[in-house]
Amino acid sequence: MPKLKKTSWINLAGFFLLFVALNFLVVNKVEATIEPEAADINIVRIFGEDRYETAKEISKSMYGSATSAVVATGENYPDALAGIALADYLSAPLLLTPTNSLSPQVTEELTRLSVSDVYILGGEGAISKNIENALINQGYNITRIAGIDRFDTAVKITEIIYSPESVTNIFVVTGVNFPDALSASVPARRSNAPLVLVQGNSLSSSTLEFIGKLTNLSTVFIVGGESVVSSGIKNILEGYATDVIRYSGKNRYATSKSLASSFFNAQELSNLVFATGEIFPDALASGTLGIKLESPMFLTRSNSLPQEISSYLPDCPSVTDVKIIGGEGAVSDNVKNSIEAILRSSAALPAPILSDPGVSAVSNTSYILTWDLIPNAESYNLEEDTDPNFGNPVNFGPITNTHNTISGHYTVLNKMYYYRVRAYNAHGFGPWSNITDMQITRPATPITINVPTDVGSISDALSVSLSGDTIHIEAGTYYENYLYMKDGVTIEGESPSTTIIDGQGNTPFLFTTPNAGDPKITTSISNLTVTNGGYGIYACYSVDLTITNCVFTNCSYGIGADAGSIVLIENNTIVGSALSGVRIDDTATVTATNNIITGSALHGFQCDGWVPAVPTFNYNDVWNNAGGDYFGCAVSITDITADPLYLDAAYHLDPNSPCKNAGDPLSDYSNEPAPNGNRINMGAYGNTPEAVS
Question: Which residue, 504, 490, 388, 406, is CA-closest to 449?
Answer without folding.
Answer: 490
